[in-house]
Amino acid sequence: MVTSPVGAHGCAPLQFSPPVFYNSRCFCYETSMAEKADLHHRAKRVTIKDILRTAVDMEKKTMSLYTRFASVFQAREDLRTFWFTMARHEAGHVGALVLVESVLESDPVLAENSKVWFDPSTVVRLRSLLNAYGREAVKGVSIERAFEMAIDVEGSELEDVVVELLQVVKEKTLRDQAVKLLIHDLSDLSYMVEKFTKNEALLARADELVERRVDTLTFASPEKRQAPLS
Question: Structure pTM?
Answer without folding.
Answer: 0.74
